[in-house]
Amino acid sequence: MQYSFQYEKPRVLQGLRVHFVSRPEVKIMAYAVNIFAIVAAVLFYMHKIRPQAFLLCSLLWFILMLIFWFFMPRMVYKRAQKTFEDQYIATFNAVGVGLENDRGSMSWDWSKFSNYFESGQFFHLYFGPRSFFLFPKTPMDADFIIHLRALLGEHVRKGRT
């Protein structure tokens, strides 16, 4: 199975957001901040703390949102901008994944991938916790997506990192 694709910046940024927000450490931090906010709101309502604690929690939540939703995806995109501007041809077969562009080609056996998951716009194939590759779904037709899901299901563990 083979298809050609080129990345679109807004979609890549969204795919990177999905990656960052799905990280276990980010989820734990978000839960901790939410619990802190609820406790601060209850204590503020009971007049046990001053409003500064509740405002601090709101500020923490706002900063986390800015970092993981805006700054980190843009930093990653900027660092790998040449990668995201190229035109690619991806090949999926029983042996693994091949990728080629004007500058060269690369192939990986299925054993190189630790896991994968599918988001709304991408297939995220992970080499490890922080190393992954995004394959956009927009140029794929429905049959290709069905076949790719089956192929990935046979060779790579499904799940987020």
Could you outline the blueprint of secondary structure elements for this entry?
Layout: E1 2-6, H1 9-22, H2 24-45, H3 51-79, H4 81-85, E2 87-92, E3 96-101, E4 104-109, E5 115-118, E6 122-126, E7 132-136, H5 142-155
Antiparallel strand pairs: 1-2, 2-3, 3-4, 5-6, 6-7
Helix pairs in contact: 1-3, 2-3
What does this structure look like?
It is a single chain. The protein folds into two domains: 2-7 and 81-155, PH-domain like, CATH 2.30.29; 9-79. Helix 1 (9-22) packs across helix 3. The protein is α+β, with helices and mostly antiparallel strands. The chain has helices at 9-22, 24-45, 51-79, 81-85, 142-155, and strands at residues 2-6, 87-92, 96-101, 104-109, 115-118, 122-126, 132-136. The protein contains five helices and seven strands; from the N terminus they run E-H-H-H-H-E-E-E-E-E-E-H. The two termini are 26 Å apart. The strands form two sheets. A four-stranded antiparallel beta sheet has the order 1-2-3-4, with no helix packed on it. It has a three-stranded antiparallel beta sheet with strand order 5-6-7, with helices on one face. A hairpin with a 2-residue loop joins strand 3 and strand 4.
